[in-house]
Fold this sequence. Notes:
The complex is a heterodimer.
Chain A: E1 2-13, E2 16-28, E3 33-37, H1 44-51, E4 59-64, E5 67-68, H2 74-83, E6 85-89, H3 100-111, H4 116-126, H5 142-154, E7 160-164, H6 172-187, E8 191-195, H7 199-202, E9 207-212, E10 215-216
Parallel strand pairs in A: 3-8, 3-9, 6-7, 7-8
Antiparallel strand pairs in A: 1-2, 1-4, 4-5, 9-10
Chain B: H1 3-15, H2 18-56, E1 60-65, H3 81-90, E2 94-109, E3 112-122, H4 126-129, E4 134-137, H5 142-147, E5 151-154, H6 156-163, E6 172-175, E7 178-186, E8 199-203, H7 204-210, E9 216-217, E10 220-221, E11 225-230, H8 236-250, E12 261-265, H9 266-309, H10 311-319, H11 324-363, H12 374-401, H13 404-409
Parallel strand pairs in B: 3-8, 5-7
Antiparallel strand pairs in B: 1-11, 1-12, 2-3, 2-6, 2-11, 4-7, 5-8, 6-7, 9-10
The structure holds adenosine-5'-triphosphate and magnesium ion.
Amino acid sequence: MIELENITKVYKAGQTEVPALRGISCRIESGEMVSITGPSGSGKSTLMNIIGCLDKPTSGRYLLDGIEVSKLNDNQLAEIRNKKIGFVFQSFNLLSRTTALANVELPLIYSGASNRRQRALQVLESVGLGHRVNHRPSELAGGEQQRVAIARALVNNPSLILADEPTGNLDTKTSQEIMLIFKQLHEQGMTIVLITHEPDIAAYTQRTIKIRDGQIEGGV
Amino acid sequence: MKLWDCFSTALRALLGNKLRSVLTMLGILIGVAAVISVLSLGSAQAAIVEESFATLGSNLIYVTPRELGMSGVGAQSTLTLKDAQAIAQSAPSVEDVSPMAQTYAQVVAGGESLSNTIIAGVAPQAEWVDNYAVAQGSFITDFDYRARSRVAVLGSEVAKTLFGEMDPTGQSLRIGGRQFQVSGVLESRGMGFGLEDMRVYIPLSTFYTTLATSQVGSRGNSVNIISVQVKSSDMLESAEQEITAILRDTHNIREGEDDDFRVLNVASVADQVTQVLGILQLALAGIAGISLLVGGIGIMNIMLVSVTERIREIGLRKAIGAKRRDIMIQFLIEAATLGLCGGALGIGLGWIIVIIMSNIATNLGFSFTATLSGDAIALAVGVAIFIGLVSGLYPAIRAARLDPIESLRHE
Ligand SMILES: Nc1ncnc2c1ncn2[C@@H]1O[C@H](COP(=O)(O)OP(=O)(O)OP(=O)(O)O)[C@@H](O)[C@H]1O
Ligand SMILES: [Mg+2]
């Protein structure tokens, strides 16, 4: 469960201050599938980074599963990112020199898990890439690369999947395939938050949070 | 993150860029190879020096004219046979004395001829004072000396040139046109000081009457060098003083005037040579050390490049749960591995250099045993890893401090 209370974020660009978020309050329940939309520069990614514990808010309170994130140190945040959160990026962000399997194993290395190979294979299988595990990203199509990235996000059994425009680099058909995977995950009980520009994609989610100029516009 | 995973991550990164990794190692490789070969060759060289001086004889003092030219072959010297006799009689610390005078002459035997050969007039004492080992026949005897016999003892090279494989003893030869008989052949001294093997030795008494009548001067028979054997090593200093006093007296040198001779203690000369070689070795090691430093800078440079190139990768690793420490260790291990591999290959290369050098030295006649000590290996590997770690530290800290969001956004 995600609880945000009056979150603000101010970037300092030299002399000027850029207020990216201006008092965001909202709740996302466990097991929800939520989309965040809004114009470019409205603060979607900033919000996502705060939810994903990659960044700290300038002010406000953020509780993730009841834990007050702003009170945690760097190492504890890294651990939360590793265990509780799975990221999916628009540009996939796979390590280009290693195989799909090695990419998926990566989070397990940092959690010190055993049985890594087996677990990674299992997740790759579940996103429909069981036959491509030894391919490098450059040998895979865009949709397949994003599946690898989703597998990597899932491999540590997180409670929350965060996806920043996961279909932004994909064609319509592939986008739909990827969204079906997210939908399946949602049906299995996972909390999913995704950023998108496209109404078609937002339509896959139960609820849409609209952001404009660093504030929530509609939705609750 | 487990240590093994740190290693395999680092190794994978290095193997992903093999050429660059190898080139980066090169600096450390060359540095370690240089250090290893300098150290190994240096210790062998010290042994050679010691051995070379040992062949000259023990507890030895050389007395030569002040002007070095006078100790040269054929030169009229300020030293005389009488000086040698005076030292032998009056210096209590002295065991024995071996005077020597030298000149050039042509030597002919059978069909072979050697022009400008050094003919050394020596006394029978030379055999033990100057430590000549006789291979065949016998050295110049007391009888030869007193009777001014026309006998000659050949250096090993001379014997080989004139007589080949044949036993020269009893054969006759002509020295400066006069008939001599070979009484013995010396064993080779090797490369040490070189000249002994190429000399012909005859009795000093014969020398003055036959070949070098010019060296019979008004002050007596001149000699080029006097070898003095001292009774024991702790008497070397007193012997030096006694010799100086005796010669100043016989040469009528007044108080305040300089000696017209030199007294050289072979052991101290050997010490000086060893010292000079040691300094030389240090200088070489210093140069090798600079190469190691340059190697370290190379590693740091490449690691910085590598961090910049992999900013997105670092951002991603952090996003999926890598701690600062994990990133730092990954880069440190990469740098240390570059150092270690460079060091290991450097030891190999250094050892090859040592083997090649010792083969060359052996072919030149040195008995050469360069050894690669375990200490040197451990030191080289340790230093190489240390350099890798130190060079990798700053890049690793930079990588660890990167902000994940900015890194992920990096193009
Ligand atoms: N590191 C930063 N330093 C300064 N300003 C920043 C920084 N990151 C974001 N901003 C600013 O904060 C605002 C919100 O940025 P953000 O990336 O959250 O927008 P977004 O909604 O994700 O946009 P898009 O749809 O284009 O991805 C923008 O005005 C942006 O310029
Ligand atoms: Mg964005």
